[in-house]
Amino acid sequence: MKTLIKNIKELVQVDDNSRLLVKGKEMAKLGTIKDAYLVINDEIIKDYGKMSDLSEKLLLKSSKNKIIDATGRMVFPSFCDSHTHLVYAGSREIEYSNKIRGLSYEEIAKRGGGILNSAKLLHQTSEDELYMQALARANEIISQGTGAVEIKSGYGLNTEDEIKILRVIKRLKETTPLLIKSTFLGAHAVPQEYKSEPDEYVDLVINEMIPQVAAEDLADYIDVFCDKGFFTVEQTDRILLAGMKYGMKAKIHANELAKSGGIQVGVKYNALSVDHIEYTEEDEIEALLKSDTMPTILPGAAFFLNMPFAPARKMMEAGLPVAIASDYNPGSSPTGNMKLMMSFACVNYKILPEEAIHASTINSAYAMGVSDLVGSISKGKIANLFITKEIPSFSFLPYAYGSNLIETVILNGKEIVI
Ligand code: NIG
Ligand code: FE
Fold this sequence. Notes:
Elements: E1 2-12, E2 32-41, E3 44-50, H1 56-59, E4 65-69, E5 73-77, E6 79-84, H2 93-100, H3 105-110, H4 115-123, H5 127-143, E7 146-152, H6 159-175, E8 179-187, H7 198-215, E9 221-226, H8 233-245, E10 249-254, H9 262-268, E11 273-276, H10 282-289, E12 294-297, H11 299-304, H12 312-317, E13 323-324, H13 338-349, H14 353-360, H15 362-367, E14 385-390, H16 396-399, E15 406-411, E16 414-416
Parallel strand pairs: 1-4, 1-5, 6-7, 7-8, 8-9, 9-10, 10-11, 11-12, 12-13
Antiparallel strand pairs: 1-2, 2-3, 5-14, 14-15, 15-16
Helix pairs in contact: 5-6, 6-7, 7-8, 13-14
Residues 83, 85, 253, 327, 329 line the site of fe (iii) ion.
């Protein structure tokens, strides 16, 4: 089936060259076509251009063609959210109040709250119930414009529960129109019973969890929370190496709480991305410049935890690309709203709307290994896009940070009822 979207006020993030990522100064140059059309053939972007060049033939309605009139509206490629933990049980608003009263993320974690709290709840939750909770979140992010998402395990912290999460992710892959990549994050926190011997937990991750996850083919990638109070660089090194032996590419939680060495170990193993990276200095920027690793900021977590902001402007000025992801999780970012992430990024990191659009589409697609498939309006890519409500300019999207401006969602070429 063909779909024609006509009279598009502005077609945004058009890239005839299908670049896999956009870096440095290029990030401020956004490809757009005003007064445009777009043709979708089955699930693929077939053609686009200016309305004045649209062939008369295409405007004729046939039973096989669908025509959408987008007068006054803009079309964007769907957001790609390259870092989430959206399979979790329940919520943790109790800690929200504790944080407001002055406890830090680390202090909450030390008292057995935080990730361990979620792990306890997840253990008591059946796989079906976990799936239903995660499905509701997946449907919510679809309605907010996300078309591709990476989802991590990490609230199991024992083999059985980690596998339970990864099976739920697999079920989401099969039952939602989202393009999903799954990441094994057994090394998200050290469970209480291993507190005095954390290396024994690392051994469990390496010798038991990774082989079982691989045997069921449940993870595309492997991640470690490499940070103060969580996993050391040495432990991270061992875990990444073990996962890579089974074909899982590395992604890292690095430098969220301190300058951890996480960025360097990620670069060493050619990680797809290093994420959080609040504590980033010249030596990390140098290391990233020599790598293919995508520095990824998580503006929701930095906002929610009141953290210092990663030096994204400095990184772009040095010539690096930057990606934005939501970190959707119950402890540090209980939302997967990528439009809101763009707004936080623009204001708090001094990122221009053009840069934020690249960072939350093509660069975040790269950070989850799918930028050959999605992340820009390019011929041959999967037709994952959204049509806005009537808006004056593309900058209005991050500017009007509290408004829902998405009217129509199209995933795999099909309109989704939102
Ligand atoms: O990315 N930093 C580690 N993990 C999550 C937080 C998880 C939690 O607190 O539940 C994050 O911020
Ligand atoms: Fe995270």
